[in-house]
Amino acid sequence: MLKLGGFAVSNYYNKVKVALLEKGIPFEEAFCMTSQEEEYRKRSPMGKVPYLEIDGEFLCESQVICEYLEDQYPQTPLYPKDALARARVRELITTMELHMELVARRLYTQAFFGGTVSDEIKKHVEKDLAKGVRAFRQLAKFSPFIAGADLTYADCAAGVHLPLVSLSSKIVYGRDVFDDYAAVKPYLKMLNERPAFKKVSDDRKVATEAMAAARAKKG
Ligand SMILES: N[C@@H](CCC(=O)N[C@@H](CS)C(=O)NCC(=O)O)C(=O)O
Hints:
- There is one protein chain.
- The chain has helices at residues 11-23, 38-41, 62-72, 83-104, 108-112, 119-139, 153-173, 184-192, 195-218; strands at 2-6, 27-31, 51-54, 57-60.
- Helix content is 59%, strand content 8%.
- The mean pLDDT is 97.
- By secondary structure, the chain is α+β, with helices and mostly antiparallel strands.
- It is globular, with a radius of gyration of 17 Å.
- It has a 4-stranded mixed sheet with strand order 2-1-3-4, covered by helices on one side.
- It has 2 domains: 2-72, Glutaredoxin (3-Layer(aba) Sandwich), CATH 3.40.30.10; 83-218, Glutathione S-transferase Yfyf (Class Pi), Chain A, domain 2 (Up-down Bundle).
- The structure holds glutathione.
- Glutathione (GSH) binds at residues 10-12, 34, 47-50, 61-63.
């Protein structure tokens, strides 16, 4: 049985979890937090989540895990057959992760964890995020899925990353970077009507509340 290591608040963990659920691959969830301890780095060399345990072996990096899932479990494909169409899906994922999520991530301390981000960082992030969103708008199809007619790994990524990019920009700048992008909200709503996405979202809400309660208790 595959074991997915991580926690239900992590968007990268949830990207893999939703792919596993959409593909109907049986798996167990192995709760763990990120850690730089040597013992944990045996499972995930950068100390991040998620990792996937396969017969006692560990694989990290969400996209690498998705590629493994597709190779090992080709049934219920989440990539198109055509090589260029597959590359388009990866192009979207890379654009979302490298040029939007990773950029917006620099705001999360302030947006979600009660910290502050310097004005200089805010200025840099705003500029870089605008470029990322512009690139994303050029590539995303929303017809109805993000890469076209069928659900793909790009939707697994979009479904977990776009809400964070949207919310963090709204909290920090007072303006959601997708405010003038009408396709985003109905698309996320459509995804969340799918049982796999709904489960991941419900689990995330429960885990977020539990984490907030634990933090409040700690003081
Ligand atoms: N590129 C990684 C990113 C994973 C990632 O950044 N996960 C976050 C949680 S959402 C994490 O582990 N953060 C802790 C850290 O960066 O040390 C992937 O795709 O798996």
